Amino acid sequence: CITDTFRTYAIVLKPDEGWIIMNRLEKSLFKLYTGFEPYPYLTEIQSGLFRFIKDSLIGFGNLNGNIVIQPRFKNISAFEGGYAIFCEGCKYGNYLNDVEGYEFFNGKWGAIDKKGKVIIPAIYDEQFKFKDGVAEVILITTKMKINTKGEKIKD
Length: 155
Description:
Blueprint: E1 9-14, E2 18-23, E3 28-31, H1 42-46, E4 49-54, E5 57-62, E6 67-73, E7 84-88, E8 91-93, E9 103-105, E10 108-112, E11 118-124, E12 134-139, E13 142-147, E14 152-153
Antiparallel strand pairs: 1-2, 2-3, 4-5, 5-6, 7-10, 8-9, 10-11, 12-13, 13-14
């Protein structure tokens, strides 16, 4: 068990289920998404909106035991700055056969808001991140900056 006090929920490693969040009645609420890590992302859970996995798809839940965004993504980041970045059609592997390791490739990237609304359609060729409402993206071979509405920003 990761949580030291069991007020409303506990994060527990169950041998047959993996890392789960359970309520005080010991009911499993969510199977936590851990990606390729052996442990759940505690900062994500502490933020109050965390990824869970159901039927091989990722959704978002909160510590009240509610599903906030239904599971529909195969690959999606945690929320950062109010947005989560997702990939459609991504593969995972070491496609360059280099020493840097594995990464996602061959997909298209987009973004959702905290309600699950797609705010940036999955059209970009590399993963991106918003900083101060701006993200640097690549569309085919063109690098550009966009805002959180997907509008191109002039340099």
